[in-house]
Amino acid sequence: MEEQVTVQIDRDAVHWARRGEGLPLLVLLHGYGSDEKDLFALVPFLPEGVAVASLPAPLGAPWPMPGRSWYPIQELERRDPATVTAAADAVLRWLDAETADAPSIALLGFSQGASVAIQTMRRDPERISAVVNLSGYASPGDLPNDPGLRERRTPVFWGRGTNDDVIPPELVEHTAQWLPEHAELSGRVYQGLTHSVSEDELADVRRFLERWLEDAQAEG
């Protein structure tokens, strides 16, 4: 049985663009050792007509690492999804409190933040309309709503580099098997890219998000 863990998002630290305009919402989840200011720098590369919220991870990264973390980095080795799930539940509680006017919600995460984005989608498939997974992975283990997600086929974009040696190969392999079974998967492997984001990748992400916005407008 998973250990029950509770963590919270600091609402006062969230960075917003176009808040309160009733627009579809894109939530940014940064990587390990970073903070809410990092991915917020991507706003100029994102589509128009979307509100953006960049969240701070709930935990401090252990000294001497700067920034914050969504869960202890040791989870990459332990393969225990409990703390990843706790971070996802913190995102869902933040959505409950702050996003009542959003007609559609997508998540964009990098590395650790991407694993939390996928886990959030798994915890509440009806809430999350699209996910961008940049250099991240799907956490091993089954969750109760996975069968519903398999039926729903939420669009997921997965971008990663050929020279990314941060995510263990077995987790990359697990994700490569898990995502096509549970989502409408698109994406690209970028030649020579390390554990980072490139301009080509951002262009692909923008096109993916534009399709999400088109679908959100059609449903609205």
TrEMBL record:
Top-level taxon in the UniProt lineage: Bacteria
SUPFAM superfamilies in the record: alpha/beta-Hydrolases (SSF53474)
Residues of the Phospholipase/carboxylesterase/thioesterase domain: 24-212
Protein family membership: Belongs to the AB hydrolase superfamily. AB hydrolase 2 family.
GO MF term set: hydrolase activity
Alphabetical list of Pfam families matching this protein: Abhydrolase_2
Name of the protein: Alpha/beta hydrolase-fold protein
Record flagged with keyword Hydrolase: yes
Keywords for the protein's UniProt record, in alphabetical order: Hydrolase
